[in-house]
Amino acid sequence: MKKQKTEKIESVLYPLPALILVAVMIYIPFVLSGYYSFTKWDGIARAPQFIGLGNFKTIFTGGADFLRTLLFTFKYTVLFMIFSNIAALALALALVKKFFMANALRGLFFIPYIMSMTIVGFIWRFIFSSGFDTLLQSTHLDIFSWSWLGEPTLAFISVVIVGVWQSLGFYIVLYIAGLEAMPQDVIEASVVDGASGFIRLRSVIIPLLAPSISTCMFMSLTNSLKVFDIILALTRGGPAGSTYSVTLGIYRDAFQNNRYGLGSAESLVFFIIVLILTQIVLKVFRSE
Predict the structure, then answer these.
(1) In the predicted model, what is the mean pLDDT of residues 225-249?
(2) Can you say whether residue 140 is alpha, beta or left, with left for phi > 0 and alpha for psi between -120 and 50 degrees?
(3) What are the boundaries of each domain within the chain?
(4) Rounded CA gap, 201 and 177, in Å?
(5) Phi, psi at residue 239, to the nearest 5°?
(6) Reported CATH class of domain 66-243
(7) Neighbours of 240 (CB within 10 A)
(8) CA 184 to CA 140: how far, in whole Å?
(9) Own/partner pairs, 134-140, CB within 8 angstroms, 24+ separation
(10) Which pLDDT score is estimated for 190?
């Protein structure tokens, strides 16, 4: 009985520091953010001014750029999910084969993922500006003369390209793990039955990859919704605010414009949207 009592005390004491840390770093700020969303506060005044639903009215009536940043984030998320998963699956199918330098190429594709996204953004900012000028002089291709970071549509495409390039290695690893865990007797049976490469991919490999596809789709959804670092380093929301994501817009309103109440309201609305989207995606892929 003494041993059982000791184990019960230990089961409470051991996780207690972690629980306190999580509460201080996550739950308490979340509750305070919910309170500040109903106030007008510049971060300097001693007492925030309670304004009720004023911040939320500003958000949904166009007084803030939240709806525009939400549209940008939605478009970025859709393209990021599509291109990152298609490219990662295609490269995983190639890299899972046994050939010279296969392991080296796996590591090469994974390197950008372990780099800081801020550094990746600065690297690609240099490439789009100075690097493309050098390529234009060498190749004389018009594509290198375009203003990739100075025109809204091209800036959006640039952000998508950099985001997919940076995270591609992570999804390749997940797909390779799923392909290597796949039962080979099923693949061999499809070959014996005369299934072509495309039929085998569509009817055998992709259904067996359902757990990996679900994981990659969910991870790409969450990663694209919270995009921040790459845009801050690459375009800083420009040109003319055309590449502001929701998270970057919240950062701008709260920490640059000192509208902490509005920033808190935007973060709360965005939290609810992300919660609903992730639950829908999880339900869809769980049923599949």
Answers:
(1) 90
(2) left
(3) 2-50, 66-243
(4) 16
(5) -80, 140
(6) mainly alpha
(7) 10
(8) 48
(9) none
(10) 80
